[in-house]
Write a structure and sequence with these properties.
The protein is of the alpha+beta class and 687 residues long. The chain has 22 helices and twelve strands. It starts with 12 loop residues before the first helix and ends with a strand.
Length: 687
């Protein structure tokens, strides 16, 4: 007799834990949880089975054989339990044998486990005279039952499910085939060949690899990882350093093994170069984005954590009270969340026009003018993706009409910014730099962010409208009082002007009073005209005019008046626009006077025409001190806001109002890195 417990207890512990894990099936509530748990149990069992086969090949004695037979029977029990937990369409009334079949091998395994801890075992058990044939027959019966069940499971799968379970089923069948080969050889030749178990171990590992690939690749466990993405992202850097140190250690071991030596200086130089390479890789934005994309698409069910993106966008929207602020927050969150460098955003105006608001091309005149067919398509659909194979007539029309536009601006996707039925804008995206393609997760994220941005834009626009109404009411009230006071003063001065005839005998008084009255009347008349223009008394007289010739005349006239400002005028061009020449002159006179008062000594004017966009662009560039960044891009045009020491803040606000009257878009930015400011005006061409 031999003492089985001569071997350490820790060698039995993993298999005893696997046997105890069967008890969890009785406490799990829902039946659909049994199958994933059984797959996980099999993934743990197969590597241990392969390890024990290797161990028996190296130590072919009776005690190890006794344990190996136990492990084989346990593995078949795990397989049998798995196939009986497969989601099959079973008949409602199952027999008692069918219900007990998954646990058929469990009771013999429990008894066998008790024998393992028995102090002394009989010789006939250790010699295998009764144990090996009985165990081999049981294994054959179990493998046959497993194969039949797997075949039935395969027949019930759809084509898509077969693609998912293909390698998993192959791994199970390979495992059954190995067991059948081992047991049939034992029954036929009544002996066990250790070298067979070396091959069996390799085949078990191969089967385990096939099943593991299928489970991980297609997420067959149906379990969501409730792990914060931030935890995983923060673990990237330690993992990179660990891999680096591991590679360095393996290289050092290989060098010592083969007798290769390096000087200490060269050794430490290579170590420092490696650390610098790892650090630069960690600090690379593209590498971090690529790692984030890999983790998001391979370790999580969803590509994005919508809750985190929504909260981040909500945080960025706090304090944003203007349209430009909302667009800046949206562009920032899109650049951070998506894996593309090409992002464009258009907004729809109240007149139905689309205008690109991001990026603001300060140094480029050519804007990406969105085709009208794109807006019509996105008013009904949420997404247009060039990779999709749409068969509807509207999609084909959209694809054909927008192909040149999408290629010219490196765009592959257009997404609607919509809240309910209200379309506020359109988002354009370029190709992912990771090499991937946009999918349902990207579409869902764009819908969520677009809806959130639209709601914020509606709130901001409502606030802006209310603010404009309050400003208009305040200005009307102010101008009414001022006009009333001016008219009263004018009446009193006019009366004084008429009564001065009584004192005509005093020449000095006559001259002084007349000059004073004339000057006061002129000033009050000028104030009256200006306040009248603020009340909207100016109605534009839109006519078809040659903008190039008109501007040449205007700049020539202004150049004679403003002797301190040298104007570099553009060459004459014939560009027909629909506008008001008087208001155009007032706009440019105000802008040039503003540059002179700000300290500029030179102003360069350029004109460009974009037939595709249907507009003429006039650019005024001065060499003054520039504009405070706090006033850009639109705060400068608000009333009472000025960049000058003694400025009133009325001139540029009036310019903005006049531009609205003649449908001209005006923008301003600094001429970085050079000093000065750039005013850009866009006139619509005649249709």
């Amino acid at each position: 007799m031999q003492n089985v417990n001569a071997m350490p207890l820790k060698l039995y512990l993993p298999f005893l834990l696997i046997l105890l894990s069967f008890a969890t099936d009785f406490v799990q509530g829902r039946r659909e949880r049994h199958f994933p748990w059984a797959m996980l149990r099999l993934l743990v069992t197969l590597p241990l089975l392969a390890a024990y086969n290797f161990y028996f090949f190296r130590h072919p004695d009776s005690i190890v054989l006794f344990r190996l037979l136990y492990v084989e029977l346990l593995s078949v029990a795990v397989l049998l339990h798995l196939v009986w937990k497969m989601p099959l369409q079973e008949s409602p009334g199952r027999s008692l044998l069918q219900k007990m079949m998954p646990h058929l091998f469990l009771w013999p395994l429990v008894a066998w486990s008790a024998l393992i801890f028995w102090p002394v075992l009989p010789p006939f058990i250790l010699q295998g005279k009764m144990l090996i044939p009985i165990q081999s027959i049981a294994l054959l019966c179990g493998c046959i039952s497993i194969s039949i069940k797997v075949e039935r499971f395969w027949q019930t799968l759809s084509l898509r499910q077969r693609w998912q379970f293909k390698y998993f089923v192959l791994g199970m069948l390979l495992t059954c085939a190995v067991f059948a080969w081992l047991t049939s050889y034992r029954l036929t030749y009544r002996r066990i060949v250790p070298v067979h178990h070396e091959l069996a171990a390799l085949l078990f590992l191969l089967a385990w690899g096939l099943m593991l690939y299928s489970i991980v690749r297609h997420r067959l466990l149906k379990r969501t990882l409730f792990i914060s993405r931030q935890v995983i992202y923060s673990a990237v850097a330690p993992v990179v350093f660990i891999l680096y140190l591991l590679g360095l250690g393996i290289s050092s071991m290989a060098m010592r093994m083969f007798g290769v030596s390096l000087p200490d200086i060269l050794y430490w130089l290579l170590a420092c170069i490696g650390l610098l390479a790892v650090t630069s890789l960690f600090l690379s934005g593209k590498a971090r984005h690529t790692a984030k994309f890999f983790l998001s698409t391979n370790f999580f069910v969803n590509k994005y954590e919508y809750r985190d993106e929504w909260l981040a966008f909500s945080e960025k929207l706090q304090g944003k009270t203007t349209t430009s602020g909302v667009i800046a927050a949206l562009s920032e969150i899109l650049a951070k969340a998506l894996y593309t460098k090409t992002i464009r955003i258009w907004l729809l105006s109240e007149k139905g026009e689309t205008k690109q608001v991001f990026p603001v091309l300060e140094h480029e005149r050519r804007q990406a003018c969105l085709p009208a067919v794109a807006r019509g398509f996105l008013e009904k659909e949420d997404i247009f993706h060039t990779v999709q194979n749409g068969h509807s007539s509207s999609y084909q029309e959209m694809a054909h009409a927008c192909q040149p536009f999408m290629q010219r601006h490196d765009l592959v996707l257009l997404a609607a910014m919509r809240a309910g039925s209200h379309l506020s804008g359109i988002i354009g995206l370029g190709q992912e730099f990771t090499g991937g393609t946009y999918g349902s997760d990207d579409f869902d994220l764009l819908k969520a962010l677009g809806s959130q941005a639209t709601s914020a834009l509606l709130a901001v626009q409502s606030a802006e409208i209310a603010a404009r109404l309050r400003e208009q009411t305040a200005w009307q009230t102010l101008s009414t009082f001022v006009l009333h006071d001016v008219k009263n003063a004018q009446a009193m001065l006019s009366l004084a002007r008429n009564n001065f005839q009584r004192h005509i005998h005093k020449p000095e008084f006559q001259d002084d009073l007349k000059d004073t009255l004339d000057d006061a009347l002129q000033r009050m008349a000028k104030v009256q005209r200006r306040l009248g223009s603020l009340q909207g008394e100016f109605q534009p007289a839109l006519v078809e005019m040659d903008l190039g010739l008109t501007l040449t005349k205007i700049f020539t006239k202004i150049d004679r008046k403003l002797s301190g400002l040298h104007i570099d005028m553009p060459p004459k061009q014939h560009l027909l626009v629909e506008s008001d020449p008087l208001l155009v002159e007032a706009i440019f006179e105000n802008l040039l006077l503003n540059s002179l008062e700000a300290g500029a000594s030179q102003c360069q004017v350029s004109i460009g025409c974009d037939m595709d966009a249907g507009q003429v662009t006039v650019v005024l560039t001065d060499n003054g001190p520039g504009i405070d960044a706090m006033l850009l891009p639109d705060h400068l045009f608000e009333p009472f806001i000025s960049n000058k020491v003694n400025g009133s803040g009325i001139g540029l606000w009036q310019v903005k109002e006049l531009c609205k009257l003649i449908r001209v878009d005006i923008m301003v930015h600094n001429n970085l890195p050079q000093p000065g400011a750039i005013f850009t005006l866009q006139f619509p061409l005649c249709s």
